[in-house]
C-alpha cells in the first residue's frame, strides 16, 4: 500500500503492507521526519487515529496521511544519510519452500551477502495466516519479502527466521500436522473457501 505522508511543507511516500497498524505507520513517518513521536490523522486538522487500528481499515491506496502532532528528537540528525524515499522497498520474488518433518515448512529466500548485514536492520513479522521480513539499507536499498495469505495457518509464536551467509530461512510451524502445503501462497479458487 502506498500512502503520502504530509508533515509541515514536506510530503513523504510511504510503502507498507495493509495489515500493519497505525502505530507502525506513525513510527515509519517519525523516522522520515526526524521526530521521536508523531500522531497522524486522515485529515489535516482531523482527530488522531488510535495506534492499534490496521491502516487498511482507515486508509485506501494512494491516500494522504497528515501529521497532526509531533515531538521532535533532541539528538542531532545527519540529513545526508536519510534519503527522502527511504521507505521504498524492492520486493524479493525468488524463493523455494519444502515441508520438513511433520510440523515445519521451510522457506529459503536467496540473498547474497545478507549474513554480513547488521541484524538490527532486518525485521520480521508472523501472523496466523501471513509472514514477512524486511531488510533496510542493504547497499543503500531496502528489500522485503511478504506473503499476505499463506496456503495454510501457522503458529506465529513457534515460527522463526534465520539469517544465513547467502540467504534467509523462514521456518513456519504448521497449525495442523495434516495440512497440505502444495503452495506457499493461498490461491483464490472458484467455489473454494477462504479459510
TrEMBL record:
Domain of life according to the entry: Eukaryota
A GO term from the CC aspect: nucleus
Domain CS: 90-185
A UniProt-annotated Pfam family: CS
SUPFAM superfamilies: HSP20-like chaperones
Name this protein carries in UniProt: CS domain-containing protein
Protein species of origin: Blepharisma stoltei
